[in-house]
Amino acid sequence: MNTLNIHQIRELLPHRYPMLLVDRVLDWEAGKKITAIKNVTANEEFFNGHFPNHPVMPGVLIIEALAQTAAIFAFMSADSKLDKDAVVYFATIDSARFKRPVEPGDQLVMEAELVRSSRGMWKFRTKGMVDGQLAVEAELMCAIRGGVVAQKVEA
């Protein structure tokens, strides 16, 4: 099982509080799939305004959490070693469907499965689950931009 803790995630992603939305990678297989979690707490700043009497995680932030999960996967699966300035940008979001709200106390289990990659463009089929129920699904396309240091050498 390949896991990453928050310190390892911070080495891969440029995001920091309050925009870092992946707490742990539970498992990943290069070129195939990644599973990560976001622990949603009542202390999240966005709950102050979305919505004060019925807090719900904004859909755009759920999609961002899925994209960060996919970005970690892209960095871990890249054919080349990327420099510290490499960034993954959104290119498209397709077929996004929200099936249930994500609320304080939920653990959002996120999966990103590689559909295809070519010349720095990566397409993923993603989903987020809460308590075994589908909360969101979407297809995301991302682009890696930044310098390539060297070809990866497999041990």
From TrEMBL:
GO terms, molecular function: (3R)-hydroxyacyl-[acyl-carrier-protein] dehydratase activity
Location of the active site: H50
UniProt KW Lyase keyword: yes
E.C. code: 4.2.1.59
Record Gene3D superfamilies: Hotdog Thioesterase
Source organism, top-level taxon: Bacteria
Chief subcellular location: cytoplasm
Catalysed reactions listed for this entry: a (3R)-hydroxyacyl-[ACP] = a (2E)-enoyl-[ACP] + H2O
Subcellular location: Cytoplasm
Keyword Lyase: yes
Keywords, ordered alphabetically: Cytoplasm, Lipid A biosynthesis, Lipid biosynthesis, Lipid metabolism, Lyase
InterPro entries listed in its UniProt record: FabA_FabZ, FabZ, HotDog_dom_sf
SUPFAM superfamilies assigned to the protein according to its UniProt record, in alphabetical order: Thioesterase/thiol ester dehydrase-isomerase
One Pfam family from the record: FabA
Top-rank EC class of the record's enzyme: lyase
One GO CC annotation: cytoplasm
Biological process terms in GO annotation: fatty acid biosynthetic process; lipid A biosynthetic process
Function description: Involved in unsaturated fatty acids biosynthesis. Catalyzes the dehydration of short chain beta-hydroxyacyl-ACPs and long chain saturated and unsaturated beta-hydroxyacyl-ACPs.
Family: Belongs to the thioester dehydratase family. FabZ subfamily.
Protein name per the record: 3-hydroxyacyl-[acyl-carrier-protein] dehydratase FabZ
Organism: Oxalobacter formigenes OXCC13
